[in-house]
Specification:
Layout lengths: L1 H14 L10 H13 L3 H18 L3 H17 L6 H11 L4 H13 L3 H14 L5 H12 L3 H15 L6 H10 L3 H14 L4 H8 L7 H9 L5 H13 L3 H9 L5 H16 L3 H13 L4 H13 L3 H11 L5 H18 L3 H10 L6 H17 L3 H11 L5 H10 L3 H8 L7 H10 L8 H11 L3 H14 L4 H14 L3 H14 L6 H14 L3 H14 L6 H11 L8
Helix pairs in contact: 1-3, 2-3, 2-4, 3-4, 4-5, 5-6, 6-7, 6-8, 8-9, 9-10, 10-11, 11-13, 12-14, 13-14, 14-15, 14-16, 15-16, 15-17, 16-17, 17-18, 18-19, 18-20, 19-20, 20-21, 20-22, 21-22, 22-23, 23-24, 24-25, 25-26, 27-28, 28-29, 29-30, 30-31, 31-32, 31-33, 32-33
Length: 573
Amino acid sequence: MVAALLALLTLTIGTAAPLRAQDPSPADAISEALAHEDARRWPAAAAAYRRILARVLTSGDEGDLIALSLLGLERVWHESAQRDSMLPVVEEVLRARPSDPVARTIQFRALSIASRDDDLARAFADWRRASPGEAAPWREYVRTLMGMGRPLAADSALAQARVALGRHPDLAGESAQIAATLERWHDAAGAWRDAIAVQPWMETAASFSLQRATAPSRDSVRTVLLAPPVVLGARRLLATLETTWGDPRRGWAALSALSVDDSTRAAWTEFGDRAEVMNAWAVARDVWEALYAHGGDATIGVRAAQAAFNAGDATAALALVERAGKGMSDEERARRVLPVAVRALGELGRAEEAARRVEEAGRHLDVDARADLARPLVGAWLRAGNVERARETAERAGALDDDATIGWLALYEGNLVEARRRLVRATARDAALTDALAVLARTRADTNRGLGDAFLTLARRDTAGAERRFAALADSLADAAPVLLATAARLAARSGEPVRAMRYWERIATQHASAAEAPEALLEWARALAKAGDTAAAAARYESLLIDHPGSAMVPQARRELERLRGRVPGTD
């Protein structure tokens, strides 16, 4: 049947009369063919596309209709497993239009699928003769070779193209893809830089290609993309790569060197959004600060302040948000500036000032706004050491319905029963809540003011004082001793006291060898010993972890670090 249909098409192409008035319009004919195709009536769709093709080839210059018909036939014959029918039709079109790019591309595709390499090479030579000096034949031939999994052949073809055409910009993308496939990262970066300069829409492809560069090769990519002149495309590409490689700070350094115009502002905004998604708050702050300094509005200033706060810089957050709020109305300041200011003041231990600001803005705050401000204000009073004012603030704002707020207050007051009941239901989880729940789950005590004082000391940002309190509690709360010592060890390490931290880990490993914290204790103890130069003792601790706790999630880390310690695995900086 295929042969009969093909013969009919050939006859039609050879004998078709000019378009008659009663013939359907080209648009109607295409609609008919698409309708058959959508209904999966493959023979009818093929016949419709072939009728269009025959008419157009007879009538003249309808290149778009030829392309639509050929692509339609390719789809239909692919679906009906009749791909072999495509080549004779394409060859008929090429006899009339030897440089038709769609026909040539379909011809290349069909020959590559059939693994007819010699015919493909001849078809490429024919296209070159039909289109001398053009990049299209080279580009499609290189793409076809790449699709066939022949990157070296594609690279050789590109070398010939450079001899024939020079460094043609239309081939930059193909040059880049081949160089990346062959892991010639310096060449790939240069080719992608050239490609996106003339074809900016290829930036996503460039990023996807270059992000595979190995760590030792990345400096050569950076060198290429940072080279003068400083242009948006190359710098934006590098910024994307740096964030993908896990270093958004370097990404911002690449972007911040751009001269400021609307395109730069758009790139900075996009990068700032990405930094926030990555929780790279210090980088996000720098981005929003730069935008704010170059004409950004108050919204950008508030975002800079919030990012600074999230990065742990309450002083900068307060300064930024106050600057952003200077041109706002009282109502707008209460809605947009006050929440950030209260949190920053709380972190800085200025609870009185935070409370005064909330009171002064009272007439601009509804019930919901007051409730939203209650938690940071409660935290401010707790960091100031005033549990009574914290509870009073929570009661006035109606925040005692909030499980997290009342749970923390109960814990600080030593009411462990209420703290367990409330904190376990808290919806917003963070590291502090996880630590509190870990301790509460390990002790059966109903009340313990000392434990409340330890957590309150930690809430006041007195890390060293909290460490001492948790360590001392290990003697009186024996059932929670391992987790209390682990908490003390982590706080000592955070305070830059590795020797004290090692003592706590040692106590856990030797006095509480079966506790859940024992594997972590052995791992951290071994790391501290290795850092101190006692490799034999460190190796013994690693081996203890591997032998005594084979099911621990820390076993892979211990095994690798032990092998590195013995010189089997090279260390990394």
